[in-house]
Structure formats: C-alpha cells, structure tokens
Amino acid sequence: MKKWLKISFSLFLITILIIPLAACGKDEVTKVRIGEVTRSIFYAPQYVAIEKGFFEEEGLDVQLTTTAGGDKTMTALLSDGIDVALVGSETSIYVSAQGANDPVINFAQLTQTDGTFLVAREKIDNFSWDLLKDSTFLGQRKGGMPQMAGEFALKKHGIDPQKDLNLIQNVDFANIAPAFSSGTGEFVQLFEPTASVFEKEGIGHIVASFGVESGHLPYTSFMTKESFIKDNSDTVEKFTRAIYKAQQWVDSHTAKETADVIKGYFDNTDLDIIEMSVERYKNQDSFATDPILDQEEWDNLQNIMDEAGELPQRADYDSLVNTSIAKKVMEE
Fold this sequence. Notes:
This protein is of the alpha/beta class and 332 residues long. Helices cover 48% and strands 16% of the residues.
C-alpha cells in the first residue's frame, strides 16, 4: 500500500511539473536576426524597441548585428545570414534592378529624412550655401543615400558638386570623420553624434541639415525577402508592431528620456551628446512616427537617385513596398 502511495505521489508531481511546461510551449519565442547598416543615434526607435521590451512582448528574441555598409547588409540578407535588414531603401531598388527572383521588400520605415549635417571647419555666423563654391568638400560614398541626398541639396542651391567643389568621395564611411578631424576638407557631411561631438570639441560647426533640405523620403527601412514575409507573416507582423510601439514612445517622450534608454548602445558618447543628437532628429522629424512608407516618399527617393545618376530604372512602389502589415498593426 505504501509503495502504491509513493508511486501515485510521484505521478502527481510529474503531472504538475509537465502542465506548466506544456503551457510554456504555447508561448514560443521566435528568434529574429537584424542586420543594421551602421550603429547610429539615427536609429533610436530600434534600440528603444529592444530596451523597453517591445520585441519581447511580441514573443521575439531579437539578435542585432551591425553589418557595416549597405552592400554587406544586403549580402547578409540575400545569403540568409540575417532575417531583416535595416538599411536605405535604395538598396532594394538596386537588388530589383539586378533581376532578383526573391525581391527585397520594404515593410516598415524607421527614418524619413536624411540624417546628415553640413559641418564647416570654421565658425560661420551668417551661413550661405554659396560659401561652399570652390571649397574642398569631404562627402559620402558615391551611390549611397547620404551622398545622393547631399548632392540633391547642393544642386537645389545652385551648386554643381562635380564642377563647383573640390569633391572628395574616395574615403570609406568609417574614415570620413577622422579625415576631417586630421585636417582634410573645409566642409564635411556627417551623421550624429559625430557632428555634435565635433562642435563641442571645436573641430567643426554645424551650419545646415541635409535632412531638412532633401525632404521626406524612406531613408532607412526594415526590409526582408519576399519569401520570408510569405513564410513568416506572423513574425513580420509582431516585429512591425514592436517597432510601431517604439516609434510612438520616442515621439511622446523627451530627447533626454530617449537618450537614457539608448545610452548603452553608445558607450563612448557622453549622455548630453546623445540627448542633443536625438533632439536634433526630433526637431526635423527624422524619426518616422509610424512604419508606413508612402508613395510620395518613394517617388522622392527615386527622384533624388535619378538626379544623382544612380537610379538603374524606376521601381514600382507596389512591387517593393508592403504597407498592409503596417496598416494592420496601426488599425488595432
């Protein structure tokens, strides 16, 4: 009898242990590998989504890698090294022009303006774009969105980048700031927080914003292969919902509050610089407040690419942009 009671008690213990485990199985965690083109305060909402637990709330375990460059990011996506890419939307157009069988689809926009600033070596009290003529300008890599948006802004103000400037474009992205710091160029095109750091240290002075000059465009978007959306529609929806929550959070909180959340991603940058950078981007509406990439922005992107001579061919909006997921998330 005692032996039977022991067996019954053991079975009871096993049963009560199995039930919670079975319940946990219903809430499976899905891993999603993101490749970001660079580490930037410009991508603040993405870091907020991670740090505030918005991805975790959706049952997603996000693994973030900095893939350093548009070409490398797209290669990682196409070769299944990552699931989702955070990169300029122009890369999806380049892939499409090469006749990809599995096109890359933009499904959630993160930033909606250029993120660079014009930095002058000398302090200029009354800046005019004409001051750039005949100067040495340290620009961004040819074919990338910063360079194209930069040239668009220059032409808008009557400056031919190839004729009116001593234009330097053969410096790698990672070495542009050090090159300017060491004495190369009278003007340079820089992202935050480098622009604010240079201003604080007296290396340069911010005189204009390329984001303001070039208008709204899908500067950086989350994208993935069409097959991934088809096979993992629920995951993509959860991902987009987390990003939307983060976009709304950043929009409704101060730059200081956002800086406090994302500071761990920028260990070598002072908190006041992070806050200043977030404030600049908020003031010029660089952070998209929702994940929808609209037709007007898409057209502006292609117009800028065309003006720079980098548009291989016009890409159909409906073929490379999926707004149905974002719209569903926003309607909830």
